[in-house]
């Protein structure tokens, strides 16, 4: 944990409170809260663009990250002999 991580978590909680709970103006039951939170998290991650992510959704940004990692993995595999014989012969 770091102060920066904590700030991100605090901001997320503030966003959820502002966009989800404060709209209603009533106290929902735990089941209602769980259903609404699940729907909201789906919206938040798959639909809602984020300014800090270049107006992309978290899922879009994550997919870009995975593609970048796959490219690095591909380059590493091309430039590294990972066969068992390479390790056994050294």
Automatic annotation (TrEMBL):
Single biological process term from Gene Ontology: DNA integration
Record-level Gene Ontology MF annotations: nucleic acid binding
Pfam families: rve_3 (PF13683)
Coiled-coil blocks: none
Domain Integrase catalytic: 1-66
Protein name: Integrase core domain-containing protein
């Amino acid at each position: 944990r770091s102060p920066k991580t904590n700030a991100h978590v605090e901001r997320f909680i503030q966003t959820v409170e502002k966009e989800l709970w404060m709209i209603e103006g009533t106290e929902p039951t735990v089941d209602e809260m769980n259903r609404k939170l699940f729907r909201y998290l789906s919206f938040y991650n798959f639909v809602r663009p984020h300014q800090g992510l270049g107006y992309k959704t978290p899922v879009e940004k994550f997919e870009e990250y995975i593609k970048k990692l796959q490219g690095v993995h591909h380059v590493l595999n091309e430039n590294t002999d990972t066969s068992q014989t390479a390790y056994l012969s050294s």
